[in-house]
Structure formats: structure tokens, C-alpha cells
Amino acid sequence: MSKTNIPAAPEGYSTVNPFIITEEAEAVIAFISDVFGGVEVEEAKTYDTDGLILHSEMKIGNSMVAVADKKPDWPATPSLLQVYVDDVESVLEKAQKRGAIVITKPTDFLGALFARVKDTQGNLWWIYQYTGEVDWAEASDDADGADSWEPTKEAIYIHDTLLEAMRGLKK
Question: Are 135 and 118 a contacting pair, CB within 8 Å?
Fold first, then answer.
């Protein structure tokens, strides 16, 4: 079996870069800027003949997120994104000021302080503040090493808020 080489991404891009196609792309661009300190790559913004944003790019930390307007005959496709931040609480405050709804309150979970928000366009943001290394074997095994893991109240809360949020994405 031969090894497949993945070509290097150009400078400023990760190997995988999310693309958000949404109603009111400008609102999502402002959300990313205000909440996560994202910086718009001005020269990348392209408008289609109908005046809608065909392509834009936002730099968040070491990642690039593309954003475009949904066409009227395209289905709604909410995005689900994971972002690491230095301070979950301040990010949630900024998100709420931009109209986001907190889906999962900050919860200590597997080496992170974890929260979720839904922005005004229906995108779900998984927000993590890294707090330490995770011992996956310890997290999934009981004291005897048997695979009989029982979920913690935090895991149940995180699970249940996701199920509720996903049901709410239906239009």
C-alpha cells in the first residue's frame, strides 16, 4: 500500500478550512470579527452578479474560515464549528452581545472548559478553552480497566444540550 501525500496548504491556510454558506454573510463576518477576533482578508471578498457575497475569508488564530451568502434556492445548511479560545467567559459575553444564544454553559470536560452557542444565522459554535492534557484511557475506563464507562453529569449535560440544539436547527 502506498502512502498518499497530502499537498501542503498555502501560507495562512490549514489543511482543512471550513466554509460557511449562510443567510446574511455580513452578519456572520461581523460575528467572527467581534466574538473571535477574526480578521477579514479584504482582497478575498467577491460578490456575485446578484450582489450576494460569493466568497470571503476570515482569519481566526491560525485558521481560515470562508463565508458566503446562501442563494435563495439553496437549502439552509447551518455550520458546526469548533474554536479554541483563551477565555470562554469573555467569548460568550461577546457572542451574546451579537445575539447568540448559549446552548451549553461553560462546563469542565476532558481537559477543557467547554461551551456552545448558536449565532443569529443558526450556526453552532463549539467553544473550548484548553485547561490540560486528557488521559483518554482514564476517561473511558473504570478503575479496573474494564470498558464500562459511566457518563458524568457534565457529559450528560453536554450530550443533552447538543441533542436539543440539533433538533432546533430544523426549519
Answer: no
